[in-house]
Design a protein that fits this description.
mainly beta, 22-stranded antiparallel beta barrel, 5-stranded mixed beta sheet
Length: about 850
């Protein structure tokens, strides 16, 4: 029993037995993120109706699934995302029957539908009603189906899942390279993929992500998180993947695409199955000359490629048991784009992922369900440095692995007004990090400056007290970081900094929650306990509660919620980031604390409103407040994808998000998302490698603060599988960051001034001709909002990226050429950034570097569906 004293041993032992048990049961389509309807169709005499067509659909998301009844009049609809649904049953000689069902639990919902004879009642036209547009759960969330995902534009290669979240969720602000800021946070996003928890970063610079064509639907939770969710809960993405279960006729699709910057992609999907067995597979590949968002408007040294394979196998060995297996492998390999100040740099990064996640479910009677999900996921990240003489201002190298393995298991019980879930999660994260850094620019951390304050090379001077002896007017650099002098390869005895470390983070969580419905009230109450044991150790008790009330007469739902959460540190480069203080490296990298990173605490409050306007329009609004001790962020080494987690003393976030959605109105559908976020952070900072810009401000607005963001999407497709057109309009008021004053603008290099569009009267800066002085009152930068001299304030008048409007448009058809009943050809043409707006995501940010939005991009695709 001594081995069980280690939480890591618990992970290994529990995972082994569960995988063994799952394997012995054989492999079901039922995801723990979705529900099931078990139904029976009867005629007026109570006899079973064989061969009746059953369709379930949601009027907002567009989700649809069909099946037919068997000899006993029974049917099963599985893998249903949590939502409200219509069920329509048709059979020759009978009137159309319809029934509503609300899926909120993994416990199967039993329905019994009685048909009436044709002519015994008036004909029924099935349309959404006001009540069908409302969800009474006390948690703000957005539901997105593949019918929407399939037609959203892709903002950048290999980041389709992130792009779908950005374009459909209010309060989610786009950042570069498929990254996004969820409701004022940096990256506090957790994914639940068929029940597998994934809280590590999913943007392409950190890892690889699930391809969009493998996703059936997503529930994007932005409100008070349920007790079953932990780690990073500002946004929870509950994803259900596609299944071949019930696909009695095999289906196959192939899509090839070509676009600007030499972008070529191919996507293949295949599905087949029966009522007991299902297989779904997706294979994707993309190559592009603009793989990452660049520090210049035109890409330099920016080729990259990505490929992935996703497989899902489902098997129902009996009426009570279900098994599924997800297997995913992927790779991103890309160049690090150069700026005009780094024309010969040759740095690259490779990211490889393997993910294996079986799952088992067993039904105990009509009311209880056991779910067990073991999982294993590993990322390998290698950063390749180029020739140190060409790398500027630093040369870097990195190799790290991040492996998560463990088990999540729970029992769900539904009876009457209660829907209870009791569960646990045990997980180990193994970290392995190696890192190298050396300074290659003699002016980056110059020891001495001349009388004008300009840095001097002086390779033999390593002691600032010796500057005066080097010549008249020469003094010590007031901004010198003394700890970096030994790492300066341009100086005497300078050498590379090398780090290597391994470590484990063990986490155990237990939770209980109950979704209770009584008349017009819905109450969601839960408690979560988290134990975190890694570089630091901590235990947290986290109550969660939400309540909603529906006014049926007006079609209104009011809701409110509170959550106490433990916010865990980011795992990417966590060891070295914590070692900057813990191992005595504070003097080297300029960190402001000698403590390792530890879990934070958050109190979150939400209030919201959902309103239906007739049967065509839904409004959903939410206001949130989040108060965090030990709030997390990243610092970035210059414009590279090499990042290090840091924490701040505390943060105060608040904001509002809104979404207005229509149902499908004769082929027309639209939605608008609106967000406003204030992100105030308080120093000092802990951890990271902030050697180029240490931050110890008492209070400031961080880069993910954005005053206003909106996305509006219109789509018109009058006939199923016919011609369609869509238009997306995005507006961003601009993230915090940039240049703090006009004088600071004059101090930028020529390439930097050209990047921000600096101007003095009619003179515009170029990469060869900077603006060194300006007396014209018309002085500024078109891509930045710069505070007037002497007015910059880190909390109330910050520099910002300039606001921008961006439009994307596409036209296509799901049935260009029709060959028989099931074979068709699809086509699509898309223009991203229709007006070719040149704009920045960020500039010289300590946290995000410098990146441009994608210029106007054309993409054409053709596909074959069998």
């Amino acid at each position: 029993m001594r081995i069980l004293k280690s939480l890591g041993a618990w992970v290994v032992v529990v995972s082994f037995w569960i995988v063994l048990f799952s394997g012995s049961a054989i492999l079901s389509a039922q995801s723990v993120a979705s529900g099931t309807v078990d139904g029976t169709v009867l005629d007026p005499t109570g006899k079973a109706v064989k061969g009746a067509a059953v369709e379930i659909q949601n009027p907002i998301t567009g989700y649809r699934q069909t099946t037919t009844t068997d000899d006993e009049g029974s049917f099963r609809l599985s893998n249903l995302p949590f939502n409200n649904y219509h069920i329509d049953v048709t059979q020759q000689g009978f009137a159309v029957a319809k029934q509503d069902v609300n899926i909120r639990s993994v416990v199967p919902s039993a329905v019994k539908i009685a048909l009436t004879l044709a002519g015994s009642q008036s004909s029924v036209t099935v349309e959404a009603e006001s009540a069908d547009l409302l969800e009474t759960v006390p948690v703000a969330h957005i539901d997105v189906d593949i019918s929407t995902l399939d037609k959203l534009p892709a903002l950048s290669p290999a980041s389709g899942l992130s792009d779908a979240i950005i374009l459909s969720s209010p309060g989610v602000v786009a950042d570069s390279n498929g990254f996004f800021h969820p409701l004022g946070d940096h990256a506090q996003t957790s994914f639940s993929i068929d029940g597998q928890p994934v809280s590590d970063q999913q943007s392409k610079a950190f890892s690889t992500q699930l391809p969009v064509n493998a996703v059936q639907s997503m529930e994007i939770i932005a409100g008070t998180p349920n007790a079953e969710y932990g780690d990073k809960t500002s946004l929870v993405v509950n994803a259900t993947t596609r299944s071949g279960l019930g696909q009695t006729r095999p289906a196959f699709s192939f899509v090839t695409e070509y676009g600007s910057f030499g972008t070529v992609s191919e996507a293949i999907t295949a599905a087949a199955g029966s009522k007991k067995f299902g297989y779904f597979g997706a294979v994707n590949g993309v190559s592009s000359g603009r793989f990452l968002d660049t520090p210049e408007f035109d890409p330099h040294h920016d080729k990259g490629n990505s490929q992935n394979i996703f497989n899902r196998i489902d098997y129902n060995p009996g009426s009570r048991d279900s098994i599924h297996l997800n297997f995913f492998v992927a790779e991103n390999f890309f160049q690090i784009p150069n700026s005009n100040d780094q024309p010969d740099q040759d740095q690259k990064q490779k990211v490889r992922t393997i993910n294996f996640a079986p799952g088992y479910q067993h039904t105990f009677g009509p009311s209880a369900l056991l779910t067990v999900n073991p999982f294993y996921r590993q990322d390998h990240v290698t950063f390749y440095s180029g020739d140190p003489t060409s790398d500027s201002p630093v040369t870097l190298s990195q190799f790290r692995t991040l492996a998560n393995y463990g088990t999540k298991a729970d029992i769900s019980y539904s009876n009457g007004m209660h829907s209870v879930k009791v569960g646990m999660q045990v997980m180990r994260t193994h970290l392995n990090e190696t890192f190298g850094l050396g300074i290659t620019d003699p002016f980056f951390n110059a020891v001495c400056v001349n009388a004008a304050g300009d840095p001097l090379a002086l390779p033999n001077v390593v002691d600032p007290t010796k500057c005066a002896a080097a010549g008249a007017g020469i003094t010590a650099n007031p901004d010198l970081q003394p700890g970096l002098i030994p790492l300066d390869l341009t100086r005497t005895a300078g050498s590379l900094f090398n780090y290597a470390g391994t470590g484990n983070i063990d986490q155990f969580s237990g939770y209980i929650q109950d979704l209770m419905t009584y008349r017009a009230f819905t109450l969601n109450a839960g408690l979560r306990i988290d134990r975190y044991s890694g570089i630091t150790k901590d235990t947290a008790y986290e109550p969660r509660i939400g309540i909603s009330y529906i006014f049926h007469s007006t079609g209104t739902v009011l809701r409110a919620g509170y959550a106490r959460t433990m916010e865990t540190p980011y795992n990417e480069n966590l060891l070295l980031s914590s070692a900057t203080g813990n191992a005595g490296l504070t003097d080297v990298f300029g960190a402001n604390s000698d403590q390792p990173l530890k879990p934070g605490r958050r109190n979150q409050y939400n209030v919201g409103l959902q309103q239906a306007f007739g049967r065509y329009l839904q409004f959903d609004g939410e206001y949130f407040w989040k108060f965090t001790d030990d709030a997390y962020d990243f610092d970035v080494i210059l414009s590279t994808p090499v990042t290090f987690p840091i924490s701040w003393s505390k943060s105060k976030l608040d904001g509002a998000s809104f979404r207005v959605s229509t149902t499908n109105i004769h082929g027309f559908q639209a939605y608008t998302t609106i967000g406003h976020t204030r992100a105030r952070y308080f120093g000092p900072e802990t951890g990271g490698l902030l050697f180029n810009s240490p931050v110890d401000l008492s209070v400031f607005r961080i880069d993910h603060d954005q005053a206003f963001q909106q996305t509006t999407t219109f789509r018109y497709q009058p006939h199923k599988n016919g011609v369609y057109g869509s238009l997306t309009w995005r507006f961003d008021s601009g993230l915090v960051g940039g240049v703090g004053s006009p004088d600071e603008l004059l101090g930028l290099s020529a390439a930097e001034q050209a990047a921000v569009g600096a101007f003095c009267g009619g003179t515009v800066a170029t990469v060869t001709n900077p603006i060194t002085s300006c007396s014209d009152p018309n002085f500024g930068a078109k891509r930045l909002r710069i505070p007037a001299e002497g007015t910059e304030d880190d909390d109330h008048n910050q520099p910002r990226i300039a606001s921008r409007h961006v439009f994307d448009a596409s036209i296509g058809t799901d049935n260009l050429i029709h060959h028989g009943e099931h074979t068709r050809v699809t086509a699509r043409f898309t223009v991203m950034n229709l007006t070719n707006r040149d704009a920045l995501y960020n500039f010289q940010s300590t946290f995000s570097g410098t990146h441009f939005l994608t210029p106007r991009t054309y993409t054409g695709s053709i596909g074959f569906v069998f």
